[in-house]
């Protein structure tokens, strides 16, 4: 039985033994983390640390909740559940996007329980207090003398749309560096005209792993040998430093260099920004933006690397434009292609489960069955997500074993190190450590 915090690292059995983590326990866990090595078991299993993650990371930082095409018309909404928070993200009657706490101002009932839909007004199911799409209380029956409806609008949540990608922040004073992030990434995203797209398909899966394991898995391609479908378009050298490329990847690297030079000419000619901006650590709103070439046919992330949608995005005249990537801390990555966009969001559900939502967007005028086939569009990422979910589930089981201890990252896992570093920096800042 662990009788001190020092024993918790490899035991990961805090709650079986009745030990609750204190602030000092967490500070100690952060302090003794070895840079370049994976985290100790409690970070993936402990209930107190999970609650702290939700409060310190999701409660205080901007995170991704979806995109404008998911709520195209006035009254369209999606709900976001994270920890004890429930939030409504809604298109108002004037076409703007707003976010509200999903909590009635009468006695607190949740207003909307579906994951998405359309409303005229927001009517509480309990006693029918009715709010308009700006959150203003329009109607409440049999209220007492002197009742002032203007005092009972829905509580707003901070929201930013960055080229149509939606981010919310639950903190009263959100990190201000989102403005700089937006200014940096918008020139990269804008040519893909995300606001002129529609949802072609969306899939939610429940991963059997802590949200950080899902994110860590996304941040490396050391395991990409396990993704045969993705391998049609993604170079097997992605994430590798030139000096770490062994004989088995040499030919692919030569191919990458040749295609990268070709694509750079295209990007220059088309006026598409492509240089990597890596701001993943040392700031509250961590991000990385870049445009990279795709392998083989090089057009899209499909099984044959050819475009999945004939109607291209924005004003693009040809589909072979590489992959415009945007990776955000703490819960999001996106691939913007010439013919479609794929967005991903991870939300924590429990200490050991997470929801991964994948959304495929095509031009709003593209016609299913004529311009694109949904199966062809989604097939690579559906297969890849299933493979990743299996990797994450096994990692979770392993991280709960008494035998687990942190192991060293490969040099190709530098983005995992960046994710973990950012996470620990933010946790430390929250704890004032
Ligand atoms: S709790 Fe919403 S109307 Fe009563
Ligand atoms: Fe993967």
Automatic annotation (TrEMBL):
SUPFAM superfamilies: Bet v1-like, ISP domain. Its cofactor is Fe cation. Residues 62-168 form the Rieske domain. Keywords: 2Fe-2S, Dioxygenase, Iron, Iron-sulfur, Metal-binding, Oxidoreductase. GO terms for molecular function: 2 iron, 2 sulfur cluster binding; dioxygenase activity; iron ion binding; monooxygenase activity; oxidoreductase activity, acting on paired donors, with incorporation or reduction of molecular oxygen. It comes from the Bacteria. It holds the Pfam family Ring_hydroxyl_A. PROSITE patterns: RIESKE. PANTHER family: CHOLINE MONOOXYGENASE, CHLOROPLASTIC. This is Aromatic ring-hydroxylating dioxygenase subunit alpha.
